[in-house]
Specification:
InterPro entries: Ribosomal_Su5_D2-typ_SF, Ribosomal_uS5, Ribosomal_uS5_bac-type, Ribosomal_uS5_C, Ribosomal_uS5_N, Ribosomal_uS5_N_CS, Ribsml_uS5_D2-typ_fold_subgr. The chain is α+β, with helices and mostly antiparallel strands. The protein has 2 domains: about 70 residues, Double Stranded RNA Binding Domain (2-Layer Sandwich); about 80 residues, Ribosomal Protein S5, domain 2, CATH 3.30.230.10.
């Protein structure tokens, strides 16, 4: 492996979220296989997840990690520590609510969501999952929410405004309400 490829791979942090053992009954006994759910991120706003299946655990983890690196998304962060706004996401029966938090709050979230936030680089967030505790659906619902997070710069450019004008309008509506 060349040096720059190793450096690019070493910048990512990966977290094993879940391993599932499945058995196939065949003549003469059972054949076991393993499925792994892995979250990979650079702790600077990029994160991805992957699902790998194989006959051995290390091979399943390797496949999941490769898939996660291929399917990374970029999430805009406020002050490199939290989200810009509150958001909800869903996948199947899994529903998640992600709320931006003040400095010092920490990561208040369940296991699969915590892995996503730690690899993403979020330090302060409050998250709640309802509907299911299935780690696959929780991770997918979290990614559904994260894909819909907008930065003030993106909203301002979509509306044809400057960020300062957008914040001024936000202040006007807060005073009126």
């Amino acid at each position: 492996m060349s040096r720059d490829v190793q450096e690019r791979e070493s910048e990512f942090v990966d977290r094993l979220v879940h391993i599932n053992r499945v058995a196939k009954v065949v003549k003469g006994g059972k054949r076991f296989g393993f499925a792994a759910l892995v979250v990979v991120g650079d702790q600077k706003g990029r994160v991805g997840f992957g699902h790998g299946k194989a006959r051995e655990v290390p091979e399943a983890i390797r496949k999941a990690t490769e898939q996660a690196k291929r399917q990374m998304i970029r999430v805009p962060l406020r002050d490199a520590r939290t989200l810009h706004h509150d958001i909800t996401g869903r996948h199947g029966a899994g529903k998640v609510v992600l709320r931006a938090a003040v400095p010092g709050t920490g990561i208040i979230a369940g296991g699969p969501m915590r892995a996503v936030f730690e690899t993403l680089g979020i330090n302060d967030i409050v998250a709640k999952s309802t509907g299911t505790s299935n780690p696959y659906n929780m991770v997918r619902a979290t990614f559904d929410a994260l894909k819909r997070v907008d930065s003030p710069r993106a909203v301002a450019s979509r509306r044809g405004l400057k960020v300062s004008e957008l914040q001024a309008r936000r202040g006007e509506t807060a005073v009126e309400a």
